[in-house]
Automatic annotation (TrEMBL):
<comment type="similarity">
    <text>Belongs to the binding-protein-dependent transport system permease family. CysTW subfamily.</text>
</comment>
<keyword id="KW-1003">Cell membrane</keyword>
<feature type="transmembrane region" description="Helical">
    <location>
        <begin position="130"/>
        <end position="148"/>
    </location>
</feature>
<dbReference type="InterPro" id="IPR035906">
    <property type="entry name" value="MetI-like_sf"/>
</dbReference>
<feature type="transmembrane region" description="Helical">
    <location>
        <begin position="102"/>
        <end position="124"/>
    </location>
</feature>
<dbReference type="InterPro" id="IPR005672">
    <property type="entry name" value="Phosphate_PstA"/>
</dbReference>
<feature type="transmembrane region" description="Helical">
    <location>
        <begin position="57"/>
        <end position="81"/>
    </location>
</feature>
<keyword id="KW-0472">Membrane</keyword>
<keyword id="KW-0592">Phosphate transport</keyword>
<protein>
    <recommendedName>
        <fullName>Phosphate transport system permease protein PstA</fullName>
    </recommendedName>
</protein>
<feature type="transmembrane region" description="Helical">
    <location>
        <begin position="246"/>
        <end position="269"/>
    </location>
</feature>
<keyword id="KW-0813">Transport</keyword>
<feature type="transmembrane region" description="Helical">
    <location>
        <begin position="12"/>
        <end position="37"/>
    </location>
</feature>
<keyword id="KW-0812">Transmembrane</keyword>
<keyword id="KW-1133">Transmembrane helix</keyword>
<dbReference type="InterPro" id="IPR051408">
    <property type="entry name" value="Phosphate_transprt_permease"/>
</dbReference>
<feature type="domain" description="ABC transmembrane type-1">
    <location>
        <begin position="62"/>
        <end position="265"/>
    </location>
</feature>
Length: 273
């Protein structure tokens, strides 16, 4: 076998292996979705959306998750965008920026349960109890590193020539960032925000150590606060088939929400050809 034939053989073999693993991944995803639909759809009813957990529904958990994730996004996304902008623009090449980037990478790969334990020690223990605010802080810490990494990567892809042209016209640095680089990278930045939102919406472990859960509908973030992931975890452990069915319905809802965010991210915000 000559050199060219050997290269083609290796190329075909690697393509076959990659295709096989891709098919296995798709089968696993289809299996999960089929199981969720099979067990979650029969439990979906109007009670799920109109009653609290204490009355056989999930209204309080749905409202609690939406409220905590929204507040976490309000806190985490601006900080992440500003930090990512500093790394890509003002701090490029500095030692401080390298240290911030290194810490952000560690935070990005840290297990969410460690973030929950950290917030438990820093917020829950000093305040004397579980609260919705501690859950918001935990979710904001999960959102921030994703937004920082995405913002830095997207701004780094903006051509240097655009910045130079703006500086040549006499624009100050803040205006170049706001009107040129952010504008050019806005699709990628929004994509990162939506991906971080999808990750935070599905987290369970940090909420068990912070917000904990509440069977009743409440808007008081100063006490134990309900959330959909925590409700699924608690209902799935109850030896009652009706409660377990409600947990499957909650799992279906949260999966549908995360899938919808990912579809919006990859299809609607994709660059137009």
């Amino acid at each position: 076998m000559d050199r060219l034939a050997r290269r083609r053989s290796v190329d075909y073999t690697m393509k076959a292996i990659s295709s096989a693993f891709a098919v296995i991944s798709l089968i696993a995803l289809a299996w999960i979705l089929f199981t969720l639909l099979q067990r979650g759809l029969p439990a979906l009813s109007s009670d799920i959306f109109t009653k609290a957990i204490s009355d056989g529904g999930l209204l309080n958990a749905i409202v609690g998750s939406l409220l905590m994730v929204a507040l976490a996004l309000v806190i985490g996304a601006p900080i992440g965008i500003m930090a990512g902008t500093y790394l890509a623009e003002a701090g490029r090449g500095s030692r401080f920026a390298a240290a911030v980037r290194f810490i952000n990478d560690i935070l990005l790969s840290a297990p969410s349960i460690l973030i929950g334990l950290f917030v438990y020690q820093m917020v829950v223990v000093p305040t004397g109890g579980f609260s919705g605010w501690s859950g918001v802080v935990a979710l904001a810490i999960i959102i921030m590193p994703v937004v920082v990494r995405t913002t830095e990567d997207m701004l780094s892809l903006v051509p240097i020539g655009l910045r130079e042209a703006a500086f040549a016209l006499g624009a100050p640095m803040w205006k170049v960032i706001v009107s040129v680089t952010w504008r050019a990278a806005r699709t990628g930045i929004v994509t990162g925000i939506l991906l971080s939102l999808a990750r935070a919406a599905g987290e369970t472990a940090p909420l068990l150590f912070t917000a904990f859960g509440n069977p009743n509908l409440t808007f008081d973030l100063g006490q134990a606060f309900p959330s959909l992931p925590a409700a699924i975890n608690q209902l799935a452990q109850v030896p009652d088939p009706a409660q377990v069915s409600i947990a499957w319905a909650g799992a279906l809802l949260i999966t549908a929400g995360v899938l919808a965010l990912n579809i919006i991210t990859r299809v609607v915000l994709a660059p137009k050809k």
